[in-house]
């Protein structure tokens, strides 16, 4: 997979991500949602540490598993996948269809935000930095964001990566695509795997923030940032 994302030259990132990220998640949404039900403890701890009444954006909320972790804050979820938004709505969550690069929120309006395993789906460094800037745009000054991205340095089941840009297969069971049998269809999702220190460099590139904490959790490199 050498040269999966060209370092230079003509490259249509929107088209690439439509095919290898958004289209895939729309196709696998029901199956994906079926496998995502338990909040990660450190994400839950971040949400539970917020003041009562805080307005919190879950940017790339998936099936909404974090939207009810802390009932004392007001969570607003958004996702780029129509299929996952429909999964959220089917569970009674009030979420919207939105692109991380152009969120439908006012500037300086949120007390906090989370972005859990989302930005690694953007195919260029500038787009990843732009996603961070957009999260910072909607935060109030002093507001904090927790950001997770898959790590190149895997300690669990996914090992042996030799490069940062990868297609990672999802085996979709036929029953989740309207079928009745067990036929497996394979969809390849694009990921940019973060190496140690890359999250911090990305926050510096985005600007307008300071790093409060950085750590490794659930095979992700993670940062907490504060808007300046």
Automatic annotation (TrEMBL):
Keywords: Methyltransferase, Transferase. CDD domains: AdoMet_MTases. It holds the Pfam family Methyltransf_11. InterPro entries: AlkB_tRNA_MeTrf/Diox (IPR051422), Methyltransf_11 (IPR013216), SAM-dependent_MTases_sf (IPR029063). Residues 58-147 form the Methyltransferase type domain. GO terms for cellular component: cytoplasm; nucleus. It comes from the Eukaryota. GO terms for biological process: tRNA methylation; tRNA wobble uridine modification. One of its GO terms (molecular function) is tRNA binding. PANTHER family: ALKYLATED DNA REPAIR PROTEIN ALKB HOMOLOG 8. This is Methyltransferase type 11 domain-containing protein.
